[in-house]
Amino acid sequence: MIKRIATVLKRYQSFLITSHINPDGDSIGSQIALALILKKMKKKVAIINENPVPRIYQFLPHSNMIATSSASGGLLAMTQNFQVAIVLDCGNLERVGKVISLISKFKILINIDHHSDNTKFGNLNWVDKKASSVAEQIFSLSRILKISLNKELATLLYTGIATDTGSFQYHLLPTTHKIIATLISRGAVPEEIAENVYHNLSFNSLKLFGLALATLKESRAHQVCWMKITKEMYQKTKSSVEDTDSFSDFLQQIKEAKILFILKEISKNKTKVSFRSIGKIDVQKIAKKFGGGGHRNAAGASLNEGIEKAEKIILKAIKIWMGC
Ligand SMILES: [Mn+2]
């Protein structure tokens, strides 16, 4: 499939790239890297996302290339003349959010992804469940296309792999580290990337974490741990959902924990849940029950319930699922 995609990239002249809502390091890094590769091939390329680039990824080269779906009408009209749409890092097409109205008009839709629950929504689907990240797939693509990697591309791809593996803790294959070795030799600077991505906690974010941590609960001898973030907490600490990105990483460090989840109040009738698990426990299956998705060890879902009710529903589902 990678070769067929490479052929399509060579054959056509204009490409619209997109990825999921609430973009992460892999979606941002992969999208810009692929755009730069296409530019090196003298192609016309644009990137459109529903949401803007999060603050911690704005240091990435050409991060200002990414337009949002609220962009000017002229820009949006222009993208309709593009020949090929490429969707990165999305298990299903709905993950692109509002951009779906632009994407669904395309006759050629390329789906490049590594989620195990991918619905193969494209005309060309390259789903590599073993890949640590889409960034790793884009690296392979650059090899097939014989595009040499410069510091910019190396930085983008390194960031995608580093963030999607939880700083090289999971989803790793021996080849992932070989790729990382190449990226460092081509100019990616791990210290620089870590400084921007990880040492970037705002004061307000940590205050929010303090309030959320006070709600920490557990069951089954600390195997299941969870906490809640209410709208009031965001207001009190002048923070937002974006400030909660690293919270799961903290919870994951609880010694006995196997399943962790964070409930985030969106409105009176809407609660977002992010799940994490350790080892073979597949939280994507739990998330799927509630119309969500993700990976084995990191998944998310949205419930049309208030936060207290959502807590009860999720706990019940976990208990049934764990067989107790
Ligand atoms: Mn990814």
Q: How does the SSE layout of this entry go?
A:
Layout: H1 2-11, E1 14-18, H2 25-40, E2 44-49, E3 66-68, H3 73-79, E4 84-88, H4 100-103, E5 108-113, E6 124-127, H5 134-144, H6 151-164, H7 174-185, H8 190-197, H9 203-213, E7 217-219, E8 224-229, H10 231-237, H11 247-251, E9 259-267, E10 270-277, H12 283-289, E11 293-294, E12 298-303, H13 307-321
Parallel strand pairs: 1-2, 1-4, 2-3, 4-5, 5-6, 8-9
Antiparallel strand pairs: 7-8, 9-10, 10-12, 11-12
Bound molecules: manganese (II) ion.
Manganese (II) ion (MN) binds at residues 26, 89, 114, 133-134, 164.
Summarize it.
By secondary structure, the protein is of the alpha/beta class. It contains 13 helices and 12 strands. It starts with a helix and ends with a helix.
> What's the domain count?
2
Question: How far apart are the termini?
Answer: 43 Å
Contiguous uncertain segments of 5+ residues: none
Q: Which structural class is indicated by helix and strand composition?
A: alpha/beta
The CATH class of the largest domain is: Alpha Beta
Counted beta strands: 12
Per the principal axes of the C-alpha atoms, what is the gross shape?
A: globular
Strand content: 15-25%
In round numbers, the mean pLDDT is 94
Helix content: 25-40%
The distinct ligands, each listed once, are:
manganese (II) ion
- Biggest sheet, in brief? 6 strands, parallel
The CATH fourth-level homologous superfamily of the largest domain: inorganic pyrophosphatase (n-terminal core)
Contiguous helical run count? 13
Second CATH tier, the architecture of the largest domain: Alpha-Beta Complex
* CATH-derived topology of the largest domain: inorganic pyrophosphatase (n-terminal core)
Give me the Rg, rounded: 20 Å
Strand order of the largest sheet: 3-2-1-4-5-6
**SSE arrangement, N to C:** HEHEEHEHEEHHHHHEEHHEEHEEH
